[in-house]
Design goal:
The complex is a heterodimer of chains A (479) and B (473). Chain A has 479 residues and is of the alpha/beta class. Chain A has helices at 8-17, 22-40, 95-102, 145-152, 169-175, 209-219, 263-278, 294-309, 328-339, 342-355, 361-384, 407-412, 415-422, 452-465, and strands at residues 43-46, 64-68, 106-111, 131-132, 135-139, 158-163, 178-181, 201-206, 249-253, 282-286, 387-391, 427-434, 440-446. In chain A, helix 7 links the parallel strand 9 (249-253) and strand 10 (282-286). Chain B has three domains: 3-284, no CATH class; 293-406, no CATH class; 414-472, Arc Repressor Mutant, subunit A (Orthogonal Bundle), CATH 1.10.10. Classes of the chains: A alpha/beta (479), B alpha+beta (473).
Chain lengths: 479, 473
C-alpha cells in the first residue's frame, strides 16, 4: 500500500511508531502534488513545510495537509482565488492555523477555490478551475474544490476548507471524500476571510469520518478573538466514535428526495439509509416543507453580508489596485470593477440591493424571519430524530463550463446544504456510491446544534461497513 | 415677524477606556501614525471585532446619568460607506436597537432637554494631507476608539441652551470618569441640527445639519450665523434646503456639503460578527448603585449641609478632583467655608500658576487641612500660611517641617508682644498723639510697626488688643 492511500490517522500511526519519517511523508505528498497539480489545479501556493514537528504533539502530528486560500496564513500569500487580493500576505495566522501548527500539522500550501468562496464548482477562481480527479473534464465542486480534489488525489491527507452554504460538503461529495461542517461557533472564524459571517464555518475534508473527528478535536473550542465562538466543550470526538447506532432515530426529509434529484443519487442515499438501519438505527421519512424557502433565504442573507464584508477590498490598503485612476471614486470603481470576477460582482450587487433603503424590509428582514422559521423547523425535527439523512447535491459533478452559464440553476443545486448553515447545524458529507459515469455520490448526515459527535459517529458506523471512502480515483493523478 | 430657532444636537464623545472598542490597542491620543493599530482595527481580511466590556459599562453608566432607559437586548449594526479613513468600509454602530433611549438632562432655569437615544460606535481614522508631497495619507491610530453618540430631541431654542447642555453633559461624563471630554483633542464633537419657524408655530421647519463644530465659541457663532441665514432665505421667499453644512471657523460662515438628495444609503444591517447584547437586571442595577455623586447633587448638598454660597459650590464642583479634594479637607476637620475659601483662592490660583488641572495636583488634602488647623489654632498667621502653602504646593511638602525650618510659627508669647508694643509706643510718640487726637489711621501704622518688629509672626488679634490696652491706659 502506498502512503497516499492511508488515512491521516493511519499515517500518523506510522509516523509515531517511526515506521515512516516526517521527511518521507512530506516527500510523498510533494510527489503526489507534482504529479497532480498540472491536471487538477488544486493548489494556488506551495510552501516548503517546516518538518521537525513534535511527533507527540497530537494524534495528527507530522501529517501533511493544506489550507483553503481564504484562511489567513502569516507570511504566505492568501488570495481567496481573487485578482483583487493578488500579492496579499497576511501578517497573522488564523486561529485554526495557530492551533493546527501547535498540534504539529505540516502545511503543504494553499488550495484553490471559488473566488471568495462564491460558487459551487471552483470555476470562479481567478487562477483557473479545479478539475475533478475522478474525471478531469468535470468540476471538483465548490467552493472548497481544491481541498476536496487534493485529498481525493492523495496530495495531502486532510485539508481545512470553509462552508457557507455547502462549500465543504458538496465538493467532498463530488470528489468522493469525507467533509464536515461543524456546528456554527465551534470553530473560530478568526482569520477566515469572510464571505457571509453568520453562515461561514471552517471544517475538515479528509478520507474518513474518523480523520474528520481527529481534526475537529484540534480546531474546535472557544476563541476569545471571535465573538461568535461558543463556550462549548471541545475535544474527545475521535475517542467517542463507537459505531454503535442502536436506538438512534434517523429522519429522511421527504422534501429532499423529490423533484430535481437524480435517480442514481437518490438510490445511493436510500441504500446508505439501509446500511445505517443494519447498524441498529431506526429510519423513517418525514415532511420538512421549509426546504422550499432555503435557497432564496440563503442567497439574500449570504449576499447581503458579502456585499458589506467585501467592501474593504478597495485597492487602498493591500492587494491589487487598478492603474490610471483619476480620483478616489475612480480608484474604487476601477479596482473593484477589474479586480472582482463576475460571480462575486453579481453577489455584491444582489446584496447591495437587498440592503438598500426601501428594499431592506421586503428582502433582508423577511429573509431573517424565514431563517428563524427554518431553524425552528429543524429544532422540531430534532425533537423527533437524532439525525437527518439527505443527499448532498441533486447530481454528481457536472461537466466543467456547464454551471456558470446558468447561475440560477447553480444556486438551486445548493438546496440540500444551505439549510444547514441557515440553522447553524453540524453536517457531514460521506461517499456512498458511484453513478453510471463513475462519479462519486455523497450522502449528508445532519445533526442538532452541538451534535457533531452524533453525526461523526453515524458516519463512522457507515464507513465501518462500507468501502466507498476507500476508493481512490484511478491512479489518483494525471489521467 | 419674530422667528424661533429650533435646535437638536448629536454629540460624539470618546470614551476614556484604556483600549479600543473591538481590540486591545491603546486609545491614547496622538502617537506616530499607524502605531496604535492591529489587524482588527485596521480591518485586515479575516480579523474579527470582539466587544470591550468596559465600553458597554461606560455607555450604560453615561446612559444612567442622563436618565435614560437601558435596553436589556441591544445589538450592533453595520453602517456601510466607502472612505479611506474607514478601513473595513463599514462602521460598527447601533441603529436599530441603541443601548440607551428616552433620557433627560436638566440644564437649569427650569429647562429640560430630552435625549432621544444614545448608542455605542467605533471612531474612524484620520486623513492627513501632506502638502509637500501633495499626497493624502491615512493614520488609523484613532480607528476603533470607542464613542458614544448622544442624540437629543429638537428641544433647544438658543445657543445659550446648547452651551448649557454641553457644559452639563461634559461635567456629567467627566464626573463619571467615562470621558475626558476634551474638545480640542476631538474627544467631544458636536453636530447641530437647526431649523427656524415663526414664533408660536408648532411645526418644524426644514433643518440643516452643521458639522465640524469643535468649540463652544464655534457652536455659538455657527448657530447665530445659520439661524440668520435661514431666516433671510425665508424672508426673501426662498426655501431652506435640507442639507449638511460645514462650519468654516476662519470665514465665520457655513457652507453646503451635500444635500439630502445626494445623501448616502448606508445599508445598515445587524452586525453578524458580534452576538446581540443581553444585559441582566443585576448588571444594570449594579452599575446604577455604583454611580458616583454627580456635580449637581454635590452643589445641592454643599449648600444644604454646609451653607456654602452658590458661587463657592460652582467653583468647587467645576472639576471632580477639586470637589473630591474639598470633601476630604472637610472630612479632616476643616471648616467647610474656610476650606472653600482656600480652594477658591489659593488652590485654584496655584493650579493656574502651574498650569495644572486638579486631578494632576500633588498637594494632598491632609496638607491643606493641617494649614487650616494651624491658622485656626492661632499657631500660624493667615498671611504666613499662604506663603507656606505656596512653598509646599508643588511637591506636597511637610507643613510643620517648613514652618520650623523657616521659623514661621506665630508668636503667641504675650509677654514678648507686650515688650515690643511698649517699645514701638515709646519710639513713635507722634503717632500716639495723632491717635489720641482722633486719627484712627495712626493705629494701623502702629500695628504695622509691631508686626514688622515681630517679622509678621504675631497674631494680629493679640497685637490689636495689647495696643488698644496700652493706648487707653
Amino acid at each position: 500500500m502506498e502512503l497516499y492511500e492511508l488515512t491521516a490517522l493511519e499515517l500518523a500511526q506510522k509516523l509515531h511508531s517511526g515506521e515512516v519519517t516526517q521527511q518521507e511523508a512530506v516527500e510523498a505528498a510533494r510527489a503526489r502534488i507534482d504529479a497532480a497539480q498540472r491536471s487538477n489545479n488544486a493548489f494556488l501556493t506551495l510552501t516548503d513545510p517546516a518538518p521537525a514537528a513534535d511527533p507527540s504533539a497530537s494524534p495528527l502530528a507530522g501529517v501533511p495537509m493544506a489550507y483553503k486560500d481564504n484562511i489567513c496564513t502569516r507570511g504566505v500569500a492568501t488570495t481567496c482565488a481573487s485578482k483583487i487580493l493578488e500579492g496579499f500576505v497576511p501578517c497573522y495566522d488564523a486561529t485554526v492555523v495557530e492551533r493546527l501548527t501547535a498540534a504539529g500539522a505540516v502545511s503543504m500550501g494553499k488550495l484553490n477555490m471559488d473566488e471568495f468562496a462564491m460558487g459551487s464548482t471552483s470555476e470562479t477562481s481567478h487562477y483557473g478551475p479545479v478539475k475533478n480527479p475522478w474525471d478531469l473534464t468535470r468540476a471538483a465542486g465548490g467552493s472548497s474544490g481544491g481541498a476536496a480534489a487534493a485529498v481525493a488525489a492523495g496530495e495531502v491527507w486532510y485539508a481545512i476548507g470553509s462552508d457557507t452554504g455547502g462549500s465543504i460538503r458538496q465538493p467532498a461529495a463530488y470528489c468522493g471524500v469525507t467533509g464536515m461542517k461543524p456546528t456554527y461557533g465551534t470553530v473560530s472564524r478568526y482569520g477566515l476571510i469572510a464571505y457571509a459571517s453568520s453562515l461561514d464555518q471552517m471544517g475538515p475534508i479528509a478520507k474518513s469520518a474518523a480523520d474528520c473527528a481527529a481534526v475537529l478535536d484540534l480546531i474546535q473550542g472557544k476563541d476569545p478573538r471571535d465573538g461568535t465562538s461558543l463556550d462549548a466543550p471541545a475535544g474527545g470526538l475521535l475517542s467517542s466514535l463507537t459505531g454503535d447506532l442502536r436506538g438512534k432515530k434517523i429522519g429522511l426529509p421527504a422534501d429532499c428526495f423529490g423533484q430535481g434529484l437524480d435517480p442514481e443519487v437518490r438510490a445511493a442515499v436510500l441504500a446508505a439509509a439501509e446500511v445505517l438501519k443494519a447498524r441498529g438505527a431506526q429510519v423513517e421519512e418525514f415532511a420538512l416543507p421549509v426546504m422550499e424557502y432555503v435557497v432564496p433565504t440563503y442567497y439574500i442573507i449570504a449576499c447581503a453580508e458579502a456585499s458589506s464584508n467585501l467592501s474593504r477590498f478597495d485597492g487602498v490598503k493591500y492587494g491589487w489596485r487598478a492603474e490610471d485612476y483619476e480620483d478616489l471614486t475612480d480608484l474604487y470603481c476601477k479596482t473593484r470593477t477589474q479586480g472582482f470576477g463576475s460571480e462575486v460582482k453579481r453577489r455584491i450587487l444582489l446584496g447591495t440591493f437587498v440592503l438598500s433603503s426601501g428594499y431592506y424590509d421586503a428582502y433582508y428582514k423577511k429573509a431573517l424571519q424565514v431563517k428563524a422559521l427554518i431553524k425552528k423547523a429543524f429544532d422540531e425535527a430534532f425533537a423527533k430524530y437524532d439525525l437527518l439523512l439527505t443527499p448532498v447535491a441533486p447530481t454528481t459533478a457536472p461537466k466543467l463550463g456547464e454551471s456558470l452559464t446558468d447561475p440560477l440553476k447553480m444556486y438551486l443545486s445548493d438546496i440540500y446544504t444551505v439549510s444547514v448553515n441557515l440553522a447553524g447545524l453540524p453536517a457531514l458529507s460521506m461517499p456512498c456510491g458511484f453513478d453510471g459515469k463513475g462519479m462519486p455520490i455523497g450522502a449528508q448526515l445532519i445533526g442538532p446544534a452541538l451534535g457533531d459527535g452524533v453525526v461523526l459517529n453515524a458516519a463512522h458506523a457507515f464507513q465501518l461497513d462500507t468501502g466507498w471512502h476507500k476508493k481512490s480515483p484511478k491512479g489518483g493523478d494525471a489521467q | 415677524m419674530t422667528w424661533e430657532t429650533v435646535i437638536g444636537l448629536e454629540t460624539h464623545v470618546e470614551l476614556a477606556t484604556k483600549t479600543k472598542i473591538f481590540c486591545s490597542c491603546t486609545t491614547q491620543f496622538g502617537g506616530a501614525p499607524n502605531t496604535h493599530c492591529c489587524p482588527v482595527c485596521t480591518g485586515m481580511p479575516g480579523a474579527l471585532p470582539v466587544l470591550n466590556e468596559k465600553v458597554l459599562e461606560f455607555a450604560v453608566k453615561a446612559g444612567l446619568a442622563l436618565n435614560c432607559e437601558i435596553r436589556p437586548k441591544s445589538r450592533f449594526d453595520r453602517k456601510n460607506y466607502f472612505y479611506p479613513d474607514l478601513p473595513k468600509a463599514y462602521q460598527i454602530s447601533q441603529l436599530y436597537l441603541p443601548i440607551c433611549y428616552d433620557g433627560a438632562v436638566d440644564i437649569g432655569g427650569g429647562k429640560t432637554i430630552r435625549i432621544h437615544e444614545m448608542h455605542m460606535e467605533e471612531d474612524a481614522g484620520k486623513l492627513v494631507h501632506d502638502p509637500w508631497l501633495d499626497q493624502t495619507r491615512a493614520d488609523y491610530n484613532r480607528c476603533g476608539v470607542p464613542l458614544i453618540e448622544i442624540v437629543t430631541e429638537p428641544d433647544f431654542r438658543s445657543a445659550e441652551e446648547v452651551v448649557a447642555y454641553l457644559e452639563r453633559l461634559k461635567e456629567t461624563l467627566q464626573y463619571l470618569g467615562v470621558s475626558d471630554c476634551k474638545m480640542q483633542e476631538g474627544s467631544l464633537r458636536c453636530d447641530v441640527n437647526l431649523s427656524v419657524r415663526p414664533a408660536g408655530s408648532t411645526e418644524l421647519g426644514t433643518r440643516t445639519e452643521m458639522k465640524n463644530l469643535n468649540s463652544f465659541k464655534a457652536i455659538t457663532r455657527a448657530i447665530s450665523y445659520e439661524a440668520r441665514r435661514q431666516i433671510e432665505r425665508i424672508e426673501e421667499g426662498k426655501r431652506v434646503i435640507q442639507e449638511t453644512r460645514r462650519w468654516d471657523e476662519n470665514k465665520d460662515a457655513t457652507y453646503a456639503m451635500r444635500s439630502k438628495e445626494n445623501a448616502q444609503d448606508y445599508r445598515y444591517f445587524p452586525e453578524p460578527d458580534i452576538p446581540p447584547l443581553e444585559l441582566s437586571e443585576e448588571y444594570i442595577e449594579g452599575l446604577r448603585a455604583s454611580q458616583p455623586e454627580l456635580a449637581q447633587a454635590k452643589r445641592a448638598r454643599y449648600q444644604a449641609d454646609w451653607g456654602l454660597p452658590v458661587y463657592d459650590t460652582e467653583m468647587i464642583t467645576s472639576q471632580k478632583a477639586l470637589a473630591d479634594f474639598f470633601e476630604e479637607v472637610v472630612a479632616l476637620g476643616a471648616h467647610p467655608k474656610q476650606a472653600s475659601n482656600w480652594i477658591m483662592g489659593q488652590v485654584l490660583g496655584q493650579l493656574s500658576t502651574h498650569g495644572l488641572e486638579a486631578k494632576d495636583m500633588k498637594l494632598t488634602p491632609a496638607t491643606l487641612a493641617r494649614l487650616i488647623a494651624l491658622v485656626q489654632e492661632g499657631k500660624l498667621n493667615r498671611n504666613t500660611a499662604v506663603k507656606v502653602f505656596e512653598a509646599v504646593f508643588a511637591d506636597d511638602g511637610d507643613v510643620d517641617a517648613y514652618i520650623k525650618e523657616h521659623g514661621l510659627a506665630q508668636v503667641s508669647d504675650t509677654a514678648l508682644v507686650t515688650t515690643v508694643v511698649e517699645q514701638v509706643l515709646s519710639d513713635n510718640q507722634k503717632s500716639v498723639e495723632d491717635f489720641k487726637s482722633g486719627k484712627e489711621k495712626a493705629f494701623g501704622f502702629l500695628v504695622g510697626q509691631v508686626m514688622r518688629q515681630l517679622k509678621g509672626q504675631a497674631s494680629p488679634a493679640v497685637v490689636n488688643q495689647l495696643l488698644r490696652e496700652k493706648l487707653s491706659s
